[in-house]
Every structure is written in structure tokens, then in C-alpha cells.
């Protein structure tokens, strides 16, 4: 597990932008943390780095939002599973979005964990004071090379705490 100390929104966005520079299709990123901890801000900055021009909002009520990426033949999928806390995950067909041909970001993954593959990068957001965040990065047990390379490259770029 690696730790990134973000002193505010700009630092969190920089982490997301760097992730966007390195990310490959087939990558699944899970974002955990309390309300207001920076999950959607991270996704917005990632999407902007990938070339999305329109507003990226958390799909709290629609659950899944798909964004076409300019000059790429795969989309960014943004999932907000918050409303599935008390059930209903079995009514959402995630398989088409986790097929290796997308970049998928899932907020509140703990509510749909049973439906997720064991191949992902996890970012856990923990507020620190008024503006700061501690962001823990970890890999799933069965993370493939794509996820491991992203993890390693982020570590090299930011020199995370271990």
C-alpha cells in the first residue's frame, strides 16, 4: 500500500491527471471514502485529462454514466454505487462495462464488491483537516500487468510514502 498526502483539491487533481496520462483501456479504478472526500473531483480531473470537455457529475441516481473519449475507441465509464448500499446491485449489469475495452471508475465499490472482478487499483480517500486528504493506493490480489504498471508509475512520479 502506498500513501499520497494531498494538501487540497489541486494536489488530488494532479494525481488524477497523472493517472490519466498513464492509464490504459481495461483499467478498473475503485474509489472509496466518505462523502466529500474527493472521489468525484478525482474522476472529473481524470476525465478532463482524457479529453472529456463536458461536465462530469457523479451519477448518483443513474448509477452509470458513459463518456466517449476523443480520438479513442473506448469510453470512460463512471459508476456511483452509493444508492446500491441497501441492495439492488444485482439489477445493475456491470459486465458490459468491465470487459477490458473501457476505463472504469467506480465510487462506493464496497456496495457492489461481490459483482466486481479481483483485478483493480483501489484509492481510499481519508480527509485530513479542512482541505487535505490522505489517499491510500493499493492493488487487488489478482491485479494484472496493466494495473501493476499504473501503480508502479504513479509511485515513481509521486514518490509515495510506504
UniProtKB/TrEMBL annotation:
Its main location: cytoplasm. GO terms for molecular function: ATP binding; metal ion binding. The keyword Magnesium applies. It is found in: Cytoplasm. GO terms for cellular component: cytoplasm. One of its GO terms (biological process) is tRNA threonylcarbamoyladenosine modification. Signal peptide: none annotated. Keywords: ATP-binding, Cytoplasm, Magnesium, Metal-binding, Nucleotide-binding, tRNA processing. This is tRNA threonylcarbamoyladenosine biosynthesis protein TsaE.
Amino acid at each position: 500500500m502506498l500513501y499520497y498526502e494531498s494538501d487540497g483539491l489541486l494536489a488530488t487533481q494532479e494525481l488524477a491527471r497523472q493517472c490519466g496520462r498513464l492509464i490504459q483501456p481495461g483499467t478498473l479504478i475503485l474509489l472509496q471514502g466518505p462523502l466529500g472526500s474527493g472521489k468525484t473531483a478525482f474522476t472529473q480531473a481524470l476525465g478532463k485529462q482524457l479529453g472529456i470537455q463536458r461536465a462530469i457529475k457523479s451519477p448518483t441516481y443513474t448509477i452509470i454514466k458513459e463518456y466517449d473519449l476523443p480520438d479513442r475507441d473506448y469510453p470512460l465509464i463512471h459508476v456511483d454505487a452509493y444508492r446500491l448500499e441497501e441492495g439492488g446491485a444485482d439489477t445493475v449489469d456491470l459486465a458490459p462495462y468491465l470487459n477490458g475495452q473501457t476505463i472504469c471508475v467506480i465510487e462506493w465499490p464496497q456496495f457492489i464488491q461481490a459483482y466486481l472482478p479481483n483485478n483493480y487499483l483501489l484509492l481510499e480517500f481519508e480527509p485530513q483537516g479542512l482541505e487535505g486528504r490522505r489517499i491510500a493506493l493499493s492493488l487487488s490480489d489478482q491485479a494484472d500487468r496493466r494495473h501493476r504498471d499504473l501503480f508502479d508509475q504513479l509511485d515513481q512520479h509521486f514518490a509515495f510514502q510506504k
